[in-house]
Structure formats: structure tokens, C-alpha cells
Write a structure and sequence with these properties.
single chain; 510 residues; alpha+beta; eleven-stranded mixed beta sheet; RNA-binding
Length: 510
RNA sequence: CGGGGUGUGGCGCAGCUGGUAGCGCACUUGUAUGGGGUACAAGAGGCCGUUGGUUCGAGUCCAAUCACCCCGACCA
């Protein structure tokens, strides 16, 4: 009976979803505006006084915190520990690895002085020119250099390996254009940095962590992702190989949601990190680094939300259920309040994150709208009529459907409902991705698909950087990744007509 | 750095050919309301981005300047 109910609404919601998806793709030009308004209205974040920097508000931070805790647990379960390294990096460290400095040089904030003073001509506070630093400090855009400089001191023997560390930190990249969560001047992230005795072990670590990210995306963000390898030109500055997960947003653009790099011995050589192996020989260590950032918040927002506001997967919602009491007279309130508190305790006992909103400064309708903006997965309303009938009204955010539930054993029903919502969000995102993944076998077909349909395009590529660059210039589409599980398939490059052994994934991207 | 746009109460905006600064939302108080953003009434709140010019008089015209936003180039 209970599950029959879900089956029937499943049908309804598919029609709603497909309409919604069309709605989004037909007004791509409004998408940025929709996104910005959503972030503000759902109370997630806003721009601060500092150019391109955002303030993450308590509600938005709550979601990030849940992501952090979940990922942190997954890192610990795979043998990693947390540590912390400085925010400043001496300029000389930064330039030790040639490709690395080349890749980041254009977007670095630099500290040149360490003191201010009162201006003698009354112009207020000015930089004290006498307090110029001998060597400038770079505000970290990523921490490889300072970490590898430290690892040199920590690693002597094969017994010190592997070294598996992660840090939760902020980094600064002075980008030209910013967007809330997707590309801000400062952002929060985690960066894992590991050192290994052998190439094989480091490569294994790289793919293992990519798998952790893909699992997190699937099970918590309710987001299906492609896993793959980056092309030469899209690689991380200083990496031998970059692996990534890519997700599809509702406007048909791809978003890189996480990266895992195999760094080879590049940083070990640049920072002289060696160990003595069992044969008493000096060897350079093998390295990886991997990270995800507050950009995941952007992915979460763009993947599931609709015109009514944010839609959160239950597993990441700071508040999974909100209870709204409805009453007119004081004596009604007492009964309703009693029932609501009882339900709250039942839900809490099941480990459900529940909020009882008994503020009498806002009306029920106002609260309904507010929790919809904020994407709370399930809303329970209780009024005098429910007290009489022994029911409650349950509304689910993903489908916007309402139903009356018998109040007996409510916690179990809600528990199932939350699981169901989590699964439905994933299914919906998966369906959307399937619908928006196309094959293209000719240049005309490719251009037409990128321009008019969007989404991922699977096409043959001759493997050269020149072709990749030309395609990018002519269509704005880039190679998002070379799929890990790609099947061998003979074909001709859509641009050059040269031989190709497998299809790669193209898309316009954030 | 190129191309376009905007600066007016907390937010979103109107203010034409110069003549006493306005609207909506939000805020405060009161009364009635309360199952989808309640209604009415009364309030509080503004060097019109900055500087200079034209004028008897500038939010409005002119010049300079600063800031922000959008579209490119750069990027997670």
C-alpha cells in the first residue's frame, strides 16, 4: 500500500521533470540569473566587500559541513589523516616546478609588505614602504610546493611510506571572472597529498581517490558522473596524468566536480624528496594529489534545483524534515504543539535531522514557501484537523506532492520517504544525463549537437592538441575527459578525419 | 584587457524636455487573521557613487573619476 503510493507518483513526477528540463534548456540565457537568485534566496551565500570573494551563510555552510564530514570519513576509511600547512608560500618554492608555476603564475595574490602606518600627509592608513619583505609570499592557489618542501624532511626510508595526508583549507586564485560557488577568488576545499615508494602504488592511489569522489557524488550528491582522464592540455599544472569526474548541469553544460592527479616524480625531483629502499639505494618518491572544493555546492544547486528554489538530497540536507504547526486558537496550539513535539522526538530517535518551526512570528504559508526555497526534502504540517483524524500532511520537495499520512509509525514512513527522495533525485539526474548524451560522427553533426542540444557529445578525436584547440575555438566545446571504461572502437576524428581508437567526451563547460 | 550596461532608503526599481526625492518589498506599532508568502491603518528610514563644470536653481545637462554587473580572453 505504502509503496504503491510511491509508484503512482513516480509516473507523475517524470512528466514534471521532463517539462522542467526542457524549460531550463530553452532559456539558457536566463540560467545565470536563475542560479544567482537561487543562491541568494535559498540563503546559501552572497558576494562580500572583497572582489570575487563570497560569504557562505550559515545555511549554505551547513550543507558544506555535511559534505566535509562525509568526505572526511571516506578519507579516513581509506587510510588518510588530516594535517595543516601554511597559507603563505615563499615565491622561490613556487617556481621550483616549471609547469606548476607556469600554470598558476597569472592568478596569484602576492604579499609584499607586512606593516601599515598612518600617512604623514593625512591620507589615512598606507603601506609602510620600510616594511617590504625580502622575499614575496604567495597566497596558496594550491599547496603542492609547501607540502613537498615539508615532505623532504619527513621522508628518509621506505618505512616512512606511504605518506597519506589531507588538508582542509582555503585557497586563493585571482580569476578574472567569478561566480558564486563555481569560481570565487577564495574557495574552501580539501587537498590530499600522498607519497609512495612505487609508481604502481601512486597510480593506484590516484584511481582509488577518483573512485571515492565518484561514490560520494553518486550516493550523497545524487549525481551521476563520468570518470576519466584529462587530455594533455587540460591537465593539472605539474601532473603526469589528471583524472576527473564530470557532471552535467541542467543547462547542458558540464562541470568538473573533482580531480585526482598522478604527479609522477615531478615534485619529488623539484623538492628533492628521496628515500632509501630495501637495497639501500636512493629513490625519488612517487606522488599524487586530489581535491574537491566548494564548487560541489554549485554542482548540487545546478543539478537538482527548480524554479521554486533549491532541492537538496536528503543525505546532505542540514534539515531533512521540517514540522510546521497550524493553529488558530490558543487551545488548538496546545494540542498541535504536543503532537508536533512527539513526532519530532520520534524522528530524532531514528536519526533524522528534524526542525520544528514553532515561531509564531511567521505564518504557515510563509514558512512553506521559505522551506521550499531552502530545499528541505520533507515538510510535515500538523493542524487541528489532523489531531481529530490522526493524520499529518506530508509534502515532498522533489515532486512538490502532498499527501496525508496516518500518524502511526510515522518515523518509519518518513525514513522510507527520505530514501525514496534521495534515489529519485539520482534517477532524475541520470535520466537527464542519458537524454543529453549524444554521439556525433561528423563535423556538421558535432557542431549542430553542441550548439543546439548541449550536453555531452561522444566523438572520435585524433589525439592531437592542435585538433583539440581548433575544436575549442570553433565550438567552445572542450574534451572533458577520456572515459576510463571506454570501449575500443575504430573511427575517424570528427575534425581531422584521422584514425581514432575510442570516443572521448566533449562538452561546453563551466 | 576588449565590447555592452548599471550606480537613487536594507533589497528591487521609477524619476521625460532642469523647479521642494517617489513606488514596491522588507522593517516598527496596532487590530483582525492563521491548512500555500494575510488584510487594513499608522510610522521610521535617502549628501541620488565621487569630484569638478554649466545654471538663479542639477538626481536630471557636460566632463573626469571610482565601483559593480553582463558577454569574451583566463580558470576548479
Amino acid at each position: 500500500m505504502f509503496f504503491d503510493y510511491f509508484h503512482c507518483i513516480l509516473f507523475k513526477y517524470y512528466t514534471i521533470i521532463s517539462k522542467m528540463a526542457k524549460n531550463f534548456t530553452t532559456r539558457k540565457e536566463d540560467y545565470a540569473k536563475w542560479y544567482n537568485e537561487l543562491v541568494i534566496k535559498a540563503d546559501l551565500a552572497e558576494y562580500s566587500a572583497v572582489r570575487g570573494c563570497m560569504v557562505i551563510k550559515p545555511y549554505g555552510y551547513g550543507i558544506w559541513e555535511t559534505m566535509q564530514q562525509t568526505l572526511d570519513r571516506m578519507f579516513k576509511d581509506t587510510g588518510h589523516s588530516n594535517a595543516y600547512f601554511p597559507i603563505f608560500i615563499p615565491k622561490s618554492f613556487f617556481s621550483r616546478e616549471a609547469a606548476h608555476v607556469e600554470g598558476f603564475a597569472k592568478e596569484c595574490a602576492v604579499v609584499t609588505h607586512y606593516r601599515l602606518k598612518n600617512d604623514e600627509n593625512g591620507k589615512g592608513i598606507v603601506v609602510d614602504e620600510n616594511a617590504k619583505l625580502e622575499e614575496e609570499l604567495i597566497v596558496r592557489p594550491t599547496s603542492e610546493t609547501i607540502i613537498w618542501d615539508t615532505y623532504r624532511k619527513w621522508i628518509q626510508s621506505y618505512r616512512d611510506l606511504p605518506l597519506l595526508l589531507n588538508q582542509w583549507a582555503n585557497v586563493v586564485r585571482w580569476e578574472m571572472r567569478t561566480r558564486l560557488f563555481l569560481r570565487t577568488t577564495e574557495f574552501l576545499w580539501q587537498e590530499g597529498h600522498t607519497a609512495h615508494a612505487t609508481r604502481e602504488e601512486a597510480e593506484e592511489e590516484t584511481t582509488k581517490m577518483l573512485e571515492v569522489y565518484a561514490t560520494f557524488a553518486r550516493e550523497f550528491l545524487a549525481l551521476p558522473v563520468w570518470k576519466g582522464r584529462k587530455s594533455e592540455s587540460e591537465k593539472f599544472a605539474g601532473a603526469v596524468e589528471t583524472y576527473c569526474i564530470e557532471a552535467l548541469m541542467q543547462d547542458g553544460k558540464a562541470l568538473q566536480a573533482g580531480t585526482s592527479h598522478f604527479l609522477g616524480q615531478n615534485f619529488a625531483k623539484a623538492f628533492d624528496v628521496k628515500y632509501l629502499d630495501k637495497e639501500n639505494k636512493q629513490q625519488f618518491v612517487w606522488a599524487t594529489s586530489w581535491g574537491v572544493s566548494t564548487r560541489l555546492m554549485g554542482a548540487l544547486i545546478m543539478a537538482h534545483s527548480d524554479d521554486q528554489g533549491l532541492v537538496l538530497p536528503p543525505k546532505l540536507a542540514p534539515e531533512q524534515v521540517v514540522i510546521v504547526p497550524i493553529y488558530r486558537k490558543e487551545e488548538d496550539f496546545e494540542k498541535v504543539n504536543e503532537k508536533a513535539l512527539q513526532i519530532k522526538e520520534e524522528l530524532k530517535a531514528k536519526g533524522i535531522r528534524v526542525k520544528y518551526d514553532d515561531r509564531d512570528t511567521y505564518k504557515p504559508g510563509w514558512k512553506f514557501a521559505e522551506y521550499e526555497f531552502k530545499g528541505v526534502p520533507v515538510r510535515i504540517a500538523i493542524g487541528p484537523k489532523d489531531i481529530e483524524k490522526g493524520t499529518v500532511e506530508v509534502a515532498r520537495r522533489d515532486t512538490l506532492e502532498k499527501a496525508f499520512y496516518q500518524a502511526t509509525d510515522l518515523a518509519t514512513k518518513i525514513e522510507h520517504l527520505l530514501e525514496n527522495i534521495q534515489q529519485n533525485l539520482y534517477n532524475k539526474a541520470m535520466d537527464f544525463r542519458e537524454e543529453n548524451t549524444h554521439k556525433a560522427d561528423s563535423w556538421e553533426e558535432f557542431k549542430d549537437t553542441i550548439e543546439n542540444r548541449g550536453g555531452f557529445v561522444l566523438a572520435h578525436w585524433d589525439g592531437t592538441a592542435e585538433t583539440e584547440e581548433k575544436i575549442k575555438q570553433e565550438t567552445k566545446a572542450t574534451i572533458r575527459l577520456i572515459p576510463l571504461d571506454a570501449k575500443e572502437e575504430k573511427g575517424k576524428c570528427i575534425y581531422s578525419g584521422n584514425e581514432s581508437n575510442r570516443r572521448v567526451v566533449f562538452a561546453r563547460a563551466y
